[in-house]
Specification:
Elements lengths: L2 H16 L3 H8 L13 H14 L4 E2 L6 E6 L4 E5 L2 E4 L4 E3 H9 L2 E3 L3 E3 L4 E7 L2 E6 L6 E4 L6 H14 L13 H9 L1 H9 L1 H8 L4 H4 L5 E7 L2 E9 L6 H8 L8 E7 L15 E9 L6 E9 L8 H7 L4 H7 L5 H4 L17
Parallel strand pairs: 3-10, 12-15
Antiparallel strand pairs: 1-4, 2-3, 4-5, 6-7, 8-9, 9-10, 11-12, 13-14, 14-15
Helix pairs in contact: 1-2, 3-8, 4-5
């Protein structure tokens, strides 16, 4: 195979992990380390990326791509995240994803209670539709790219005034950590440590976020943190192959994937009882651990059954936020419409669980 042919093949594979445009992927690989073709982050950079994924990846809404991220462009000291255009909550009209991202990420204080958003998050700059974020006192950088016409300055000012009027001081303009943020960290030291042990997992998954689109059969993907585990729940409708073995193969690939191993698992694929619309879902659960030292773990819950979290035509909901047709045909095919249409089962939306914080 020629060098050009090999580079093309690598770029196509990288696309499946990052979702970035082919030419961008090819350029990133040219002259790079093809033994680790997805650049990894460490330290403050990994911490920032993990916090961003944790806040953006919770449930309770629909996006055109899993987790509301169209693609990511990972670099050595930065990551650029292309956001979907809109979010649609379980009940409600579409809402700009840029506004939703700020609602989740920007730090503000509930005096005497907690800090919401990402502790230490600061706005570094605005360049057109790109919002540059950093952590206080660091050179870390995550860039949120909005759709054409995004006015980050207006969105930021609106939230600044709204939260001040609500008695919740906004914190993202402070040059250093505020007393509110330091008190939150000191008040929950075990939770803070457990989450920092998971930073590398969150960062690595963010840099491979397209896996949830290209190699997962789930129509709904959510995540949250409990203790020392980062949990992902992936729902696949009946009539569509669950495909967890293929997903795990890509996730644990020795070149492209994460340095994790399956610590234990329970697979219900051979279960004879059919899922119903009452309470029963098949679930295959995999607990993954770091190869080497115990540095926190990843839990994957592959669920199989009738569509949940929707009271109307689920495919129409996803079409309304611009989900790609080819992806919809794969995860919610017309042949399974009776299983993902209106459902009698309703569940409360998930939120990020961070111990006592």
């Amino acid at each position: 195979m020629t060098m050009g042919g090999r580079l093309t093949r690598l770029a196509r594979t990288r696309q499946q992990y990052t979702g970035e445009p082919f030419q961008v992927s090819r350029h990133a690989l040219h002259g790079g380390d093809n033994q680790r073709p997805v650049t990894e982050a460490t330290g403050d950079q990994a911490h920032l990326e993990a916090e961003v994924l944790a806040k953006l990846g919770t449930g309770g809404q629909w996006w055109s791509h899993p987790l509301g991220i169209a693609h990511v462009r990972p670099a050595f000291q930065s990551a650029l995240i292309q956001l979907d255009s809109h979010t649609r909550f379980r009940r409600g009209t579409p809402y700009p994803r840029t506004a939703h991202a700020l609602d989740r990420l920007l730090p503000s204080a509930e005096p005497g209670v907690q800090v919401t958003g990402v502790i230490g998050l600061r706005v570094a700059s605005i360049e057109g539709v790109d919002l540059h974020l950093s952590l206080s006192g660091t050179t870390s950088r995550v860039i949120l790219r909005g759709v054409p016409g995004t006015r980050w300055d207006e969105l930021l000012d609106e939230r600044w005034h709204r939260w001040k009027e609500a008695g919740c001081p906004p914190l993202w303009r402070s040059p250093s950590l505020t007393d509110h943020e330091e008190a939150d960290i000191l008040g929950h030291p075990e939770t803070w440590k457990d989450e920092r042990d998971l930073d590398w997992i969150g960062s690595a998954l963010l840099r491979r976020v397209a896996l949830f689109h290209t190699w997962s059969s789930a129509y709904s993907t959510r995540s949250w943190i409990t203790g020392d585990e980062w949990i992902f729940e992936l729902d696949t409708v009946l009539g569509v192959p669950l495909g967890h073995d293929v997903f795990l193969e890509r996730l644990l690939d020795p070149v492209w994937g994460l340095p994790l191993r399956v610590d234990r698992h329970h697979c219900s694929c051979a279960e004879r009882r059919d899922p119903d619309e009452g309470v029963h879902l098949r679930q295959c659960t995999y607990h993954l651990r770091y190869i080497g030292l115990p540095r926190g773990g990843l839990q994957l819950r592959f669920r199989h059954g009738h569509a949940v979290y929707a009271s109307t035509d689920l495919r129409a909901v996803l079409e309304s936020v611009g989900s790609p047709v080819k992806w919809l045909d794969r995860v919610l095919p017309a042949s399974s419409s009776g299983l993902w249409g209106a459902t009698r089962r309703h569940r409360p939306s998930r939120r990020l669980e961070t111990g006592s914080r």
